[in-house]
Design goal:
295 residues; globular; mainly alpha
């Protein structure tokens, strides 16, 4: 292996840049380790980073770390049926998990995760309420049950085996107008396209512009609308949650950060949470405005 191949991807990091590791540098570290067989010590020398930091980056990206003393070069293991094209088709197009892919191909899920990192395929977040693998309701089901048959959210949930809250959140996410609750049925002026209502608010749009948060009116899952969400800055979160009175779910729709992340960030910043349940101050103001317009 020539020195040019090894040294090509990198220039030495300075003290000023060492604290900021870009996705490109992470991908190059993975290639040096997985494809070129360099040890973590050699990579650390090359990029002038602490070896332990190299190890943390590799582990975070799902790369299997060889035991100490294993440093001799070995070519990338060829696994029958496992290629970048196949992995992209299974993981991205068919939405299979690393465990499911491992079972289908007869390999370990750790190897699957290692190849995802090697080939630069971004891994999905996990958990029923996170960005990717969360429980959802298909737009077609919402149209069929909630819109066409006009079932209540709780009734839709019973038919599909999910909670009414998930049905309503899915409707907001996919741009389906949500009816106001109550009997008799409230006026249609209270039916809400939540994403549009949030973006149409003058204060909300001003705050998003101030923090350079993109305006994305096209409905859909947050991982599609915000592939790389910007950090929840203290000023941004304070303005949206405290000053505008938005709910955490509203902030999710505007920033791409799931509700659990918003809640953790509120706690980190010492911002007092509002009580659970009921409408947010923002929605109270919107309903009051709609009542005024309906007179």
């Amino acid at each position: 292996m020539s020195a040019a191949i090894v040294s090509g991807p990198f220039t030495a990091l300075t003290k000023e840049t060492a604290s900021t590791i870009t996705p490109e540098i992470v991908a190059q570290i993975i290639r040096l380790y997985s494809e070129y067989g360099l040890s973590t010590y050699r990579i650390a020398e090359k990029v002038q980073l602490d070896r332990q930091r190299i190890v943390r980056i590799l582990r975070r990206e799902g790369v299997t770390i060889a035991p100490r003393g294993f440093g001799r070069f070995r070519p990338l293991k060829v696994v029958e049926g496992l290629s970048e094209e196949t992995l992209r088709a299974l993981y991205i197009d068919r939405w299979m998990s690393s465990i499911e892919i491992g079972r289908a191909l007869g390999i370990s899920d750790r190897l699957v995760r290692s190849r995802l990192a090697l080939w630069g395929i971004k891994r999905r977040t996990r958990g029923g309420f996170d960005r990717h693998d969360r429980t959802d309701v298909a737009p077609q089901e919402l149209e069929r049950l909630y819109v066409d048959r006009e079932l209540a959210a709780s009734e839709v949930g019973e038919e599909l085996g999910v909670s009414g809250r998930i049905v309503l959140q899915a409707a907001h996410t996919h741009g389906v107008p949500v009816r106001a609750g109550g009997a008799p049925r409230p006026s249609k002026i209270f039916d809400i396209h939540l994403i549009d209502v949030l973006y149409d608010d003058v204060d909300v749009s001003r705050i998003l512009a101030a923090y350079d948060i993109a305006i994305i009116r096209e409905p859909g899952p947050i991982w599609q609308r915000f592939p790389n969400p910007k950090p929840l800055a203290e000023g941004l979160l304070t303005a949206l949650y405290v000053e505008c009175g938005l709910a955490c779910f509203h902030i999710e729709l505007l920033t791409g950060h799931p509700v659990p992340t918003v809640l953790r960030r509120l706690d980190q910043l010492g911002i007092a949470r509002r009580g659970r349940g009921g409408r947010s101050p923002f929605i109270h103001r919107w309903h009051a405005c709609q009542r005024t317009l309906g007179r």
